[in-house]
Amino acid sequence: MTDVAAISAYLDEVLQPSRIEDYSGAVNGLQMSNAQAVSKIAAAVDFSQRTLDACVAANANLLIVHHGMFWGGATAYTGSAYGRIKLLIEMGVAVYSSHLPLDMHPEIGNNVLLAKELGLAPSGGFAHWKGTAIGCSGDSNIPTPDLVARATTFAQTYGGSVVTTSNVAKRVTKKWGICTGSGASAETIAEAREAHIDTLIVGEGPHYTAVAAEDEGIAIIYAGHYATETLGVQAVARKVSEKFGIPWIFLSAPTGL
Question: Mean pLDDT throughout 171-175?
């Protein structure tokens, strides 16, 4: 029988949440404990009422998420927030969350796993945050429309869709950069320009990023924030399952974004 403290200590060792400064609401690590042995693990992208209800329905008592309980910042435990806390305590569900440490992990991170799904081989970092590469990059010789098709197939698997800049046709991707989630920004476009990256693969980004990228001759494939961040939590849950012999399940809860 394995308690949540042992699993949390193992995940802290694997993910090393202290190695990078994250958004304050990320609160990487164990966010809610429980008093029972962990009997089943549920993995999900977001902590929400939908995933919590699915976790309880699956009889799981450890929920591993990418966007955790405090993503919206400090809030009073009233209304729906109180209801979620109450359900966690009553059902004995613990919560472990990992944001940037999971995005950047070289083996089970969202970025390297997305590259693998798209048939790409990372050879360098990308999307630096305070000096640390969160994403990855590499060289290729792939017609960009083929890369769009691969991303579309992947996104549809997780209930999403793909949007691209208007300059993806009749071009070849020679150098690419990946930053999952909200990966398109003025900073990532500037970094791509400096690194001679011609194609960005991200989850989502503001409207201006499509305009700015085209002006720089860079194509962007927006493959969905949710879809591009489904892989890491599954890899984490699988790793815990293999280490401790505990069954796991992925809770699909697409947001459409």
Answer: 98
